[in-house]
What we know:
The structure holds 2 protein chains of 2 kinds.
Chain A: H1 3-34, H2 41-58, H3 64-91, H4 96-119, E1 133-136, E2 139-142, H5 143-165, H6 167-177, H7 179-184, H8 189-211, H9 222-236, H10 241-262, H11 267-281
Antiparallel strand pairs in A: 1-2
Helix pairs in contact in A: 1-5, 1-8, 1-9, 1-10, 2-3, 2-4, 2-8, 2-9, 3-4, 3-8, 5-6, 5-8, 6-8, 9-10, 9-11
Chain B: E1 2-13, E2 16-27, E3 31-35, H1 42-49, E4 57-62, E5 65-66, H2 72-77, E6 80-83, H3 95-102, H4 106-109, H5 112-122, H6 124-128, H7 139-152, E7 157-161, H8 169-184, E8 188-193, H9 199-202, E9 205-210, E10 213-219, H10 220-225, H11 227-233
Parallel strand pairs in B: 3-8, 3-9, 6-7, 7-8
Antiparallel strand pairs in B: 1-2, 1-4, 4-5, 9-10
Helix pairs in contact in B: 3-7, 5-7
Amino acid sequence: MNWRSLGDVLISGVTIGSVYYIIALGFTLVYGVGRVLNLAYGSFFVWGAYVCWALTAGFARLPVIVGGLIAVPLLFMLGVAVDRGVVNPLRKRPEFDFSVLLATLGLAMVLDNLALAIFGPRPKALPKFGEWRLELGGFVLSAQALIIIVFAGAFAVALALFLQRTRTGMSIRAVAQDPTGARIVGIRLNRVYALTFGLSVALAAAGGILLAQRFFITPLGGWSILVKALIIAVAGGMGSLKGTLVAAFALGMLEAFVGWQAGLLWVMPFWFGVLLAILLIRPHGLFGAAGRRV
Amino acid sequence: MTMLEVEGLNVSYGDIQVIRGVDLTADAGQLTAIFGPNGHGKSTLLKSICGLVPATSGIVRVDGEEVQGRPTDQLVARGIVLVAEDRHLFPEMTVMENLRLGAFSRAARSSEDANLKLVFDMFPKLADLRRREAATLSGGEARMLAIGRGLMSSPRLLAVDEPSFGLVPKMRHVVFDCLRQLADNGLTVLVVEQSTGRISELADQVYLIEDGAVVFGGDTAAALQNEEFKRVYLGQGPGGVE
Lengths: 294, 242
């Protein structure tokens, strides 16, 4: 084994893991709070990257960080609109768990094909955050890797503080833990659902922009991310923030390792193998207290 | 002064009518107790008054203004606050966080600190437990927290569903005495109970509900003279409870 390569793999694992963390957070948050298993999640991930691309390389020629900081709030608003227009009307009907699955699947088709129609099938590349690099004792840390880690970390910390310290954040946790209790204290569930969906989409979009530093943007690029988010969320125990953190970094690291040792073709089989193993061994996830929530 | 007036309230779950034309009034600063057997619609009545369950028809007035059909958050903002029988605390939050969320409504925020002091004065135990997660509380502690959270909403009408359920007798007395004290301080208190016991001594007004309809309503002295009330609740005759 080559130690320098191992160092690169570790850096790569932390970089991917940090993005997987915020992506899985968004996915698990909207499930924990609103019981929405959002199959369009990967499409929002892709759309975040496309909007950022349109604002930078595509049309508006803004610096990439500015483009990202505009794209994420835009996607937040799209998320709020989707909750109000598509998801929330289903809540009043029976079988919400299932109907929302079908509705978000349909939405994913719409979003993917819109992306195909607007941006075309050819992969798009987002401009790099920077071309400089840090060299530390032989290990190389690229600007992208560093900025990805910093931004993902900032998003994660900001979200945690928001949920723990602010009144609105507490109301989101309250709805996750007991929706009737939340109504009793005067929390408007519909507002919390819309806000949570918006936050979730914003996290997907941020993840899409950050990963577009390493991968091309394609109309169907979100599906593998949806699968990974789902697997991380299941591994961590749906709705558990701590479990999601551990699972995201562990699986990000393992993915980098598998890619290095076995080749990139083995990355997706690895993920499905993980899913299989979890469902067989610990169906409630790593932090398997059943029912543990946000 | 009449604070709450309910007129001809009907509530159904699907095809099943649970509340049948209930008329009820509760006066400011009084403790009004609603008795009735299990499964006869008492909880539904409270939930409907507090906007958690929609009524099919009927009128609910608060201070003379009709409020039926309004969403819960608007009712909470007007001080109509429910303490549910199954408590609905936030299990993975601390006692303190649960109390703070009680003051979620804009109307309650300005008096959050004053209300917190009131709650801790009434239930000193909660002050000791403030950092504990609600899920780890005993039944009595959780009941105190549920009432405390209700008080944090700056209620003008506190609707308390079966406060004695699952509590040891000593704890029941603590809870009932505190409800009486709240009424004496000017709060309108509406209590639902299955068994009469001590609460009938403390209540100013009593309603008896059977099969979703009021079969008796009046002040406590009259209730103790009433044949129907005595038959069902004081064990004098067939069907006695407790």
